[in-house]
Amino acid sequence: MGLIMRKFSVKERVAYSKANGIAGEVLSSIRTIFAFEGQIKEMVRYESELGTAEKLGVRRSILFNCVLGCTDASVYVLIAVTFWYGIVMINDGDAAAGDIILVVFAMIFGGSTLGQSFQQFDHFNAAKVAAAEIYETIDRIPPIDKRTPGKIIEKLSGEIVFRNVCFEYPLRKDVKILQDFNLTIRSGQTVAIVGPSGSGKSTVIQLIQRFYDPSRGEIEVDRTDIRELDLKWFRSQLGVVSQEPVLFAGTVSENIRLGKLDATQEEIEAAAKLSGAHEFVMRLPEAYETFIAEGGGGLSGGQKQRIAIARALIRNPRILLLDEATSALDTRSEAAVQKALENARVGRTVVIVAHRLSTVRDADVIMVVDGGVIKESGNHSELVKMNGIYAKLVRKSDEETSDEVEDEAVEESDEESMEIRHRVHKQGDDEYDKRSVVSFKSLSTVSSTVSVLEPKISATKEVLRLNKPEKVFLIFGVLMAVVNGIINTLFPIMYAEMYDIFQDPDSQNQLDRTIVLAILLLVLAVFRVAATTFGGYCMGVAGERLTKRCRSLLFRAILNQEVGWFDATENQPGILTGILAADVPMLQNISGRRLSSMLETAVLIIGSLIVAFVFSWQIALVALAFFPVLMIAGAFQMKQWTGDTQQANVQGAGLAHETLSNARTVFSLGIEEHFCNRYADEALVRTKKMVKDVSVFSVVSAIANSLMNFEFAACFQVAGLLMRTPGFKFADIIRSYTAISFGAQNLGVVAGYAPDTKKAKVAIVKIFKILKREPLLRANDGEFPSIGFQGDLTFSNVRFRYPTRKKIPVLKDFTYHVPFGKSVALVGQSGCGKSTVLQLVQRFYDVTAQDEDDGIYMDGINIRRLAPNWIRRQLGVVSQEPNLLHMSIKENIAYGLNYEDPSMDDIISAARQANAHDFIMELPEGYDTDVGPRGSQLSGGQKQRVAIARALLRNPRLLLLDEATAALDNESERVVQAALDAAMRKGERTTLVVAHRLTTVEKCDQIVVLENGRTVESGPPDTLMEMKGAYYALHNADVNIKQD
Question: SMART domains given for it (predicted)?
Answer without folding.
Answer: AAA
